[in-house]
Amino acid sequence: MNDKRYPAISIQKKTGKETFLNGGDGLHKTLYDFWAWAFSDLVGNTERGKLAEFIVAMAVGATDGISGSWDSYDLLSPDGIRIEVKASAYLQSWAQKELSQIRFGIRPTHAWDSKENTYDDSLLRQADVYVFCVLKHKNQDTLNPLDLSQWEFFTLSSKALDQAIGNQKSISLNRLISLGAIKSDFDGLSQAIRQQYSMRG
């Protein structure tokens, strides 16, 4: 028996053409206008992270649906690989004295079930594979996060992370490389993900 008065809402993919309603005759704004207003800073930490998720989704063919805000992992590939995406960059949208150091958050989590509004008891890395995305470009004048050649990707199984560093909360790029993360460009990313998935044991 479902005793939830307010069950999880099913979210449908939008087109951007949806309009704001009941704002008077002078208001003609669309959802696209909101997206452009809210998410144009692709260099800043928040939007860059979501952009990196979309880039990985493009690589594995998982862009038909929508991004899950509360899922226990970021992406599910069409062949069932659970993927966690992390992003970092040398350049930020704010003023910098020097290039940023590349680090990624990797702490294990308690999975949350949005349909049941419950947390799992186990503290785990929920995905099968982690993809660490680095916006590697270091020239502000030509920086373009939509240029896929300005990114590089490092892919590693969750099992490899668990065995090497346990519950550690963050990791450097050099440490990832030392653990055997597969480096690739965008064209090689899908293969790297599948290779790490096959190695998870």
Would you summarize the structure shown here?
With 201 residues, this protein is an alpha+beta fold. The chain has five helices and nine strands, in the order ααβββββββαβαβα.
Structural commentary:
Helix 2 crosses helix 5. The chain has a five-stranded mixed beta sheet with strand order 1-2-6-7-9. The chain contains five helices and nine strands. The longest helix has 16 residues, at 45-60. Helix content is 25%, strand content 22%. It has one domain. The chain is an alpha+beta fold and 201 residues long.
User: Whole-number average pLDDT?
Assistant: 91
Strand order of the largest sheet: 1-2-6-7-9
How many beta strands in the DSSP annotation?
9
Shape: globular
Q: Main attributes?
A:
single chain; 22% strand; two-stranded antiparallel sheet; 9 strands; globular; 201 residues; five-stranded mixed beta sheet; 25% helix; alpha+beta
